[in-house]
Amino acid sequence: MDKTLLAVWNRTFPVPYTKILKRDLAGKGVLYYRKNSKKSVYIYSYSVFLPLYMEQNEKPVRKDDSGREIKLKLIYDPSSEEEKYTIELGEFDEMYDAKGIIKWIR
Cα separation of 53 and 62, whole Å? Predict the structure, then answer.
């Protein structure tokens, strides 16, 4: 799954992260979320280190060793015809818990 995360990240964002700090932030596994009777997604959680970048000659250049931890969700939608994987920044929010249609998979 790490290779998939890297490929989707590089396709979505202009600068790369340097390392994965933590996988499975909740410690419960993969979240299976059923949006409705026809659409379900699998949500993987990660914490990655994103170094500080500056622009030089219109290209991003890493600036020393500073940076920050970014929490993100890698979402797998098997029913999607275009992009099966997408990334959302941030932690889980109450939206996923609103109707109680969730299940943790180890």
Answer: 4
